Amino acid sequence: MDPLERLLAERACERLIIDFVHRLDLGEPSSVAELFTEDGVWQWPEDGRLVKGRDALRAYFGSRPADRLSRRMMSNVLVTVTSWDAATAISYFTTYRVDGYDGGVVPAGPPVQVGHYEDTFRRADGAWLLASRTLHLPFGGATPRANSPLS
């Protein structure tokens, strides 16, 4: 793989990482399923969650509460292209989230999650897709209600 092809592959995988959180926060959460391969996997080993396949991913992410307001910040994205059609990545995330949101400004509180994702990617028919996404969450807490006092 020449340097330009490697750079384009890295950028395509980085774009998937960012598109994932934009769809969760600003779009239609169930649509993140389209960013995965047909047999794609999302898992959180420490919590025992394992979601396999686009239909299951669509249902899982689509089941988020309609009144949830969330914003995720992604950083330290490191994509490693391992072959012409495979790559891995590690990225850090911070999640701010409340349930019960009905508009306006919510007082800023601490993040409810800080962790990292480990991703694998596959290229099929010229497009890069997530083959697996594994959540690692060393810092986490309950999602507060928007009308709850934040301390």
Structural account:
The structure is a single chain. The chain is α+β, with helices and mostly antiparallel strands. 22% of the residues lie in helices and 44% in strands. It has a six-stranded mixed sheet, covered by helices on one side. The longest helix is centred in the N-terminal third of the chain and has 24 residues, at 3-26. The chain is globular, with a radius of gyration of 16 Å. The termini are far apart. 19% of the residues are buried. The mean pLDDT is 95.
What is the structure about, briefly put?
The chain has 151 residues and is α+β, with helices and mostly antiparallel strands.
Strand content: 35-45%
Low-confidence stretches: none
Question: What global shape is seen?
Answer: globular
* Largest sheet, strands/sense/barrel: 6 strands, mixed
| Topology, number of strands | 6
**Rg:** 16 Å
Order of helices and strands: HEEHEEEE
Number of helices: 2
- Spatial order of the strands in the main sheet? 2-1-6-5-4-3
Termini Cα gap: 51 Å
Structural class: alpha+beta
- Percent helix, as a range, is 10-25%
